[in-house]
Automatic annotation (TrEMBL):
This protein's name: Cro/Cl family transcriptional regulator
Lineage: Bacteria, Pseudomonadati, Pseudomonadota, Gammaproteobacteria, Oceanospirillales
Database matches in InterPro entries: Lambda_DNA-bd_dom_sf
Single GO molecular function: DNA binding
Length: 67
């Protein structure tokens, strides 16, 4: 999920911050890609209009080795 898409959806940095319950400074600190935790929150808030990009999420693998 790109930061620019999120800001465009909400209309401004301040509206984005308000919708997420964070500061405008926090939004400004995002790189081009929104942090994964925020992506899930945004997907939830937008009812799926913006979707979390799970292509870069690595699955958790249980440690099956015994010591």
């Amino acid at each position: 999920m790109k930061k620019s898409d999120v800001i465009a959806h909400f209309g401004s940095v301040s509206a984005t911050a308000e919708a997420l319950g964070i500061t405008t400074q926090a939004v400004s600190l995002w790189a081009d890609t929104v942090p994964m935790g925020r992506q899930w929150q945004i997907e939830n808030i937008t009812g799926g209009a913006l979707r979390a990009d799970t292509s870069k999420v690595k699955p958790l693998v249980a440690n099956t080795q015994r010591v």
